[in-house]
């Protein structure tokens, strides 16, 4: 096993013990003197010198980049003497290890082959994981486009609302970064969020809905609750697990508020309008409705389109829809 710890490198362990060599760490490599290499492989100075010479004369390695002089201090009798000593980096050590004909050299090669095999297998697993992640993200984007097509085919949208749909797709695509740096930009719910300054309650929400009905002169069944599911929606955004908020950021709470109110159909009439209104009202009360430049974090046309997408979405797409909402309104 090879690891750096307190300026030491542990090359491998044998049945009889372990070899431990003091080394210099620098430039993302390690540096050993010739004496340390001799000790490491339990070989002779002449043998190691011959191997190093052949490594450079054959062109396998370039001595300009693999050899350095470092000043070392060692005790000679009662004095501490400082001298410049030639050091060889890890590339040279490995090359010598594959040449030296000693028991320690054999053990080193066995260890190195094992590490190489593990690296290749682990590298395959990592690449396979990245491929699965890319496939998942592509499927999410395809699902959003599918919902867009469904909304367009089943609803009479005006030009402004259609533009809102296009804006959502464009922003979602940029978040996935499919066209630029797919591996480094993955659509996830941001860990950082805004500090919550207002907690929505049923009484406050009910007052806001009633005021909306009066101002817009909605009549009949608008805002009339069919059951207790609206209260449940409000309670759900403040769920906790192990004493911690299940949705820790204000943006996550806002996203779930919009999603729950739309999908639960708690009102006899006006579910989508009430959901969109409460979403904006909640963002405003928590002082995150507007950007620093004074624009809304989500334009009205995009909000209309987003509410329709949620309404048409399958329950299995909930996580995807929450990611879309949070990434649209997040400042982080």
Task: Please provide a written account of the structure.
The protein is α+β, with helices and mostly antiparallel strands. It folds into two domains: 3-101; 136-329, Fic/DOC protein, Fido domain (Four Helix Bundle (Hemerythrin (Met), subunit A)). The protein has twelve helices and nine strands. It has helices at 34-41, 45-57, 63-66, 90-97, 103-154, 159-176, 202-216, 229-236, 250-264, 271-285, 300-312, 318-329, and strands at 3-4, 8-14, 17-22, 24-26, 29-33, 67-76, 79-89, 240-241, 244-245. The strands form three sheets. The chain has a four-stranded antiparallel sheet. A hairpin with a 3-residue loop joins strand 1 (3-4) and strand 2 (8-14). The two termini are 41 Å apart. It comes from Salegentibacter salinarum.
